[in-house]
Amino acid sequence: MLHFGRWKLLTIFLVVLAGALYTLPNLVPETVRYQINEADGSREPRGIWRYIPSSTINLGLDLQGGSYIVFEVDMNEVRTAQLESLAADVRQTLRNDPPLLPRSVAVVGEEVVVLMIREEQRDEAFERLRELNGPVTTELGQPGLAQMYDMQRDGEDPSAIRISVTDEQFTAIRQRTLSQSITVIRRRLDGLGTTDPTIARAGADRVMVQVPGADDPQEIIDLVATQAALSFHLVDTTINPGPNGQARTPPGRTIYPVANTQPVQYLAVETRQLLTGENLTQSNVTQHPSYVGPVVGFRLDTQGALIFGDVTRNNRGRQFAIVLDNEIITAPRINEPILGGSGVIGGGYTYETASQLVILLNAGALPATLTPVEQRTVSASLGRDQIESGTLAIVIGFAAVIVFMLAAYGIFGVFSTLALLVNVVLILGGLSGLGMTLTLPGIAGIILTIGMAVDANVLIFERIREESRHGRTPANAIQAGYERALAAILDANITTFIAAAVLFMLGAGPVRGFAVTLGVGILTSVFTAFVFSRLLAVLWLRAFKPKSLPL
User: Fold this and answer.
1) Cβ contacts of residue 433 below 8 Å, gap of 6+?
2) CA 179 to CA 343: how far, in whole Å?
3) 429 contacts 18 by C-beta, under 8 angstroms
4) What pairs with residue 257 in β-bridges?
């Protein structure tokens, strides 16, 4: 199979050209490729760079430096919230017809304790509350064997029922909380425009965050650890909150401070949440004639728009407070019904603060409080040293391989060298095109790929040499060598690719970086060793028509 049709030649040419075009931006400074506007920081491609792919390889934390932070998720808060929700469900269940009147339903320690007014109703209440118990739902959506709650009648108090969350259910809640926290963190950092952050679990209740290029960990903490719990309330102006917000309030009323007021002012609002951040579908930085400077525009989902319309229609003249993390960020007066399901949040924002609020609202609220327990800044100078060492290792390894291949295989060593160069170009182009992050283990993956590519060429050339010694013509020897070496090359590379895929799925951070470069390198190595180098051999064979092979 030494014939290369036009479509094969065109395919090989396009693959190599694409690799070169995606690699090129990594070799040219950004100032050459872009015209940067100093006023707003916008970038405009220069000349031919408008038509060339602009993505480059992202450098990981170990290469360009950045911030490393470990957050602890407050699982006590999660357990308390679960118990409070359980207590509310208990009250609602006992109110169902016919109602059973409890003396009290309260969270005591890690239990919900129900005390019935009439002792003889305890057993009936217990049977009704068993409706709350159900199978544990795992992250995969499959029911477990355990129950959600441990329920028992108190033997010492004939009117008491004690309910607690089972260990199995709390484990499921912990896993779900960690997953939700990671999702929200990723949305916030993506909105900030950071370069491929690494976010992963670190133990039973911690989340590790690595942000390459960010030299201020506190900026990341301020963005990530903000709860961003948004809610909408009607203001109750009949209650005087007092100068310090400590006035006593009737049930159903809560006092919150008003943001950006000096001295701090307070307002009493109805505790009932009319809308929450879950009703938001979109927010953005915009302008509004009623405010000076930027404001945050928001749009509600269908249900939220209906509620918002009813509230503004029925409460003209009242103030409508928007509360973010127990602080009123704005409390405009309702002048007319707002029926479109959209509105604005104003309050003396700058473009930066408004943009940060938009990121928080679009990412959603955290399911629990995050507390930074470890933070450090990785020096960029260390990254430069590692890049230089890695580059030197690649150059030395590459040079040693070239010398060996030229000495051992002559002209075929030249084919191998050219194939290796194309292989490196395709790896870099693939990493750029996929937007992957290069880490120090990733550099090790590239070096390993070079070794594997040489190994494939050695197998092919040794097979060609063997066929030539058996008296085959140069053309037959080359064809047989490539065909018979293919099975061994595929076996070795497929097993390695499977290992790289497992590392990528189960690993995190630098381990995934190694898996990415190794996986991409395996694909490009098979292409260059079996396709590109054979094309070079065929072209040489057709041009010089040798009577014997110089092997």
Assistant:
1) 18, 22, 53, 55
2) 31
3) yes
4) 266
The Cα-based distances of 185 to 102, 133, 218, 323 in angstroms read 42, 32, 15, 21
Q: Report whether 207 contacts 220 (CB < 8 A).
A: no
Please name every residue paired with 329 in a beta bridge, in sequence order, or none if there are none. Answer: none
Q: Give me the sheet containing 66-73, strands edge to edge.
A: 198-201, 206-212, 66-73, 370-378
Q: And the tokens for 402?
A: 């070239």
Q: What string of pLDDT tens digits covers the 551 residues of the chain? A: 567 778 888 999 999 999 999 998 888 887 778 776 655 455 777 778 778 888 888 777 777 778 889 999 999 888 888 888 888 888 888 888 788 888 888 888 888 888 888 888 888 888 888 877 765 443 333 344 456 777 788 777 788 888 888 888 888 888 888 888 888 888 888 776 656 788 888 888 899 998 887 778 888 888 888 888 889 999 999 999 988 888 888 878 999 999 888 888 999 999 888 888 888 888 888 888 877 788 888 888 888 899 999 999 999 999 999 998 889 988 888 888 888 888 888 767 888 888 888 888 888 888 888 999 988 887 765 556 766 777 787 788 778 888 888 888 889 999 989 998 999 899 999 988 887 778 778 888 888 888 888 888 888 999 999 988 888 888 899 988 888 888 888 888 899 899 999 988 887 667 877 888 899 999 999 899 889 999 999 899 888 888 888 87
Query: Per the omega criterion (within 30 degrees of 0), is the bond before 263 cis?
Result: yes
Evaluate whether 343 touches 298 at the Cβ level (below 8 Å): yes
Calpha distance 395→415 (Å, rounded): 18
Close Cβ partners of 435 (under 8 Å, ≥ 6 residues apart): 55, 58, 196
* 320 contact partners, CB below 8 Å, separation of at least 6: 232, 233, 234, 235, 311, 312, 331, 332, 333, 334
Contact 361, 296 (CB under 8 A): yes
Select from 234, 426, 390 the least CA-distant residue to 319: 234
d(CA 537, CA 402): 17
What letter represents residue 87's amino acid?
A
